[in-house]
Structures are given as C-alpha cells and as structure tokens.
Design brief:
Blueprint (H helix, E strand, L loop, with lengths): L9 E9 L2 H15 L2 E4 L3 E2 L7 H4 L4 E11 L4 H18 L9 E7 L3 E6 L7 E4 L2 E10 L2 E4 L10 H22 L1
Antiparallel strand pairs: 1-4, 1-5, 2-4, 3-4, 5-6, 6-8, 7-8, 8-9
Length: 181
C-alpha cells in the first residue's frame, strides 16, 4: 500500500481568448485582483485551428496565457473554473459586444509533469472533480518536451504554446527550489 503524501502547490494558468482586446484586458484585471500578479504572459496567438467558436465568439480570435505568481492547491480547480465562468457572464452583461460569448476563460494548472485544464463538459478522458467541473490532462512533459494526447486540442499541439509552457515549467521548478531552501 502506498503512503498518502501531501500535494505540491501548482502553477495556475489561464487561457484567455476573444476577438476584443478590451475583453482580454478586462479579464486580466479581474484575474489579478482575485488571483494575484501575473508572473508570465504569453504572446497573443491567433486562434485559427478550429471554427468551433465562430458562431458564439466570432472570427479573428486571439488567445493568450497567463501564469500567476502565487502557487495554488490543485484541488481548487473547480472553484477557479466557476469563477472564470462567472467573469465570462459578467463581461457579456457589461460589454456592448454582439456575440453570445465575447470572452472565453479556461483555467488550469501546470506541474513539472503535466498541464491540466478545467472543463464543464464530460468526455471519456475527463475526470469529474466536483460542482460540475472536470479535469483534463491536456499535455504531459516527457524526455525534455511537451507531448500531446489523442484528445489534445489542436491549438495546444503548437510549438509556440509549448515554448510558453516550458517557460512556466522552468519558473515552477525555480519556485520549488526557492521554497525548499
């Protein structure tokens, strides 16, 4: 029998995308107020791998990732997803955007070994956590590189995303060393 051990805190990551720069800025401000400073931010990527969001979000979507300074308990992932969804709804109410979903926020977390995303949609590869939220192991780190799963979203297979996640992983490893010193 394996001994139950305590968890390590993880790096909170949020994927934010919209066709509106103001929506991304608004979301960033909300997230920093509640979750603390952003320590790493990706480039603004074109989100063009799928047309899944065209009807609800429009075209010309841009996606960015934020990694937060404060490490978190991985067990708070459902709370993070619920809060992110509330911000999406709030922005829809305060904006004048014609789309039904002008902002999309997907929180997750990164460990040394994996990137986990939260979802409200059940699929065969997702594990139920609580409060209608599931977890998906989207990428894993092996032999010095990020690797995909059969279900990994097409954009998460991009090398430029992986470069950002590698920077996040390096930051997390430095934090672990600092915290243990």
């Amino acid at each position: 029998m394996g001994a139950i051990a305590s968890y390590r805190r993880v790096l909170l990551i949020v994927a934010a995308f919209s066709r509106y720069p103001d929506a991304l800025q608004w979301a960033r401000e909300q997230a920093e107020i509640e979750w603390g400073p952003i320590v790493l931010e990706s480039d603004l990527f074109d989100h063009a791998e799928t047309h899944y969001y065209d009807a609800s979000m429009g075209t010309g979507l841009k996606k960015t990732f934020w990694a937060f300074q404060q490490l978190v308990d991985p067990g708070v992932l459902p709370q993070l997803k619920i809060r992110a969804n509330a911000w999406e709804d709030e922005y829809k109410q305060v904006s004048v955007c014609p789309e039904t979903r002008p902002l999309n926020l997907d929180p997750g977390y990164l460990t040394e070994a994996k990137l986990v995303l939260a979802s409200t949609k059940d699929r065969d590869h997702r594990l139920y956590l609580r409060d209608g939220v599931y977890a998906e192991g989207t990428l894993y780190f092996n032999e010095g590189t990020w690797k995909t799963r059969p279900w990994t979203y097409p954009d998460y297979q991009r090398a430029d995303y992986h470069e950002f996640f590698t920077r996040c992983r390096e930051y997390l490893r430095r934090r672990y060393k600092e915290d243990s010193a």
